Amino acid sequence: MTSSKLDRLKYLLQMKKFADSEWEKRGLNPSSSELCEQLENNFDNCLNSLLKLVEEQATNKQLKTTLSQNLKSLNKAELDTEEKEFVCDYYYEIAKIIEVDFKNELNNWLYGNVLNSLFKISELLKGKEKIVETLSQSCTKCNSKLETFILEKDETIPESDFFIVRCKSCREYNLIDKGPKIKRLKFGEYELTEQLSRKDYDLDGAIIRLKQIQHFRK
């Protein structure tokens, strides 16, 4: 488990968390390069500290304290609402990796103590669109949840195409079979690599294609 935590923290450390492409995925215009660099450095410092603690097999309390101190070091007055929500998404992702409950701290930071009881961090993380169903499976390598959020269904739609996706935590390729009636959806903690049409692939064929990708795209 420690090895999985280290791999997932290292992946976050290596990625450009506030690159223009990451803002665009959220439907937002990128913030200033100065602010993005500041946020990037802040999270990198946090991740480096957590990596050291995980390697030393620190307690959950120590991990949570480090995460909380890093959150408090941010001047939220410099951030607009969308920037604060973006920041909270990353803190929430880190908290899940190190297995600490950080929802209350994020709610307090985002809304203040008075409003904390009125909001749930899950509402922030899932966005404003109504989710009618959540499909969930575990990554075959790191066991992270790979969730697909169904936003709209249509009874006339047959079986959906297969998705070959890449886990954001460990970068392993996985196969997702979503089933029928799906009109609109939103990805969770994975990136779409290939979409396999049911006209060309059955389940066995999709599994073969997955194994090919796992072998040749290491």
From TrEMBL:
Pfam families: DUF4844. InterPro entries: DUF4844, DUF4844_sf. It comes from the Bacteria. This is Uncharacterized protein DUF4844. It comes from Flavobacterium croceum DSM 17960. The lineage of its organism: Bacteria, Pseudomonadati, Bacteroidota, Flavobacteriia, Flavobacteriales.
